[in-house]
Amino acid sequence: MTTSLAPARPYARRGLPERVVFACMDAHTLGGIQRVTHTLAQGLAGRGYEVHVLGLHRSPAPFRYVERPAYRSHEIHRTPMGPVGPLARRLGDRRLRALLDRLGPAHIVLTSPGVVSRMLALLPPHMTPIGHYHGSFEHAQGTWHLGSVRRHWGRLEQSVFLSPDDAAGFAAHALLPHTWTIPNPLPDWPARPSPLSAPRVLGIGRLEGVKRFDRLISAFARAVRTGRDPWELHLIGDGEDVPLLREHARAEGVGDRVVFRGRVPAALMRAEYLGGAVVGLSSEHEGLPLVLCEAASYGVPAVAFDVSGGVRSLVRHQRTGLLAPPGDVDALGAALARLMGSADERRRMGAAARAHAEQFRLDRVLDGWETLFEHIAR
């Protein structure tokens, strides 16, 4: 994906480190954390920072997020993510320490609980550690993440979360005194919105696991039974559940209306959003899903399960889209039917969604990161 460089801020950053390092478990796999990391890295490089993206492991299928990166990339282990033997761990630790010593003073953004627990004890004193959690507090409560945050994140200089709800949850339950909220950025801003005229619902993401596209198919099947227009559900993405989802669509009676598009190159997604009228999200959990943010920037209203503060920060119920209780397929179907059945509702909510998404433009998010850097320096 190509991202544009944000213009440099006019003021001098007196006393602030001019170097930023982003550390991921795997920095170049296709995924939300990686996409946000590369977008931020390119944007901060465009503002005059020396930026490095560090992957603890090699990606088995690297994805190119930025055509001409203005930052440097590094990998510690030559193997993909997985168990690491004692010898390989020692050698990796040695390479990591040598790299961080060579880079010198920097803000280092640790992009997951796994990265924090792996790297915190290895950081030299000239590195200022910042935790960046890409999930929701609701999801963390049901996994090892919350316990890891409790154990380790109090030793970080600052902890960044995606929404005020998430920051408040972690502050209260993980006893973090230093939480900060910065949303994920949009890589670019479309010049014009979707006309919302094509009878097409979009479902975008990995067709597997927690994304639960089977629920979106079922909700869509309920919605089309209430209308007469030739609506289709276009699923954009690939994954191991494609055969099961095809069979599920046939069983729901919408096999001829669910179109499996496969992976669409990032450069061609503009046409997909312009051709959509509604976007659906049926995940079991999400942080701040960029799919909803991107759809909103094109003026496409959303129907989603209310699974996190990040989702609620994007989908303002009855204003920029419609929320359904988590896992309630009937409610999700009714919400889809409402927007599919009313062009006026789609236009009203789509216009509000595009206006609301202005806050996620790259320049504004980069301003938030620079404000955080200034706060740390004080």
Automatic annotation (TrEMBL):
Keyword Transferase: yes
Molecular function as annotated in GO: glycosyltransferase activity
Start and end residues of each Glycosyltransferase subfamily 4-like N-terminal domain: 31-153
All copies of domain Glycosyl transferase family, residue ranges: 198-355
Record flagged with keyword Transferase: yes
Pfam families given in the database record: Glyco_transf_4, Glycos_transf_1
Alphabetical keyword list: Glycosyltransferase, Transferase
Protein's recorded name: Glycosyltransferase involved in cell wall biosynthesis
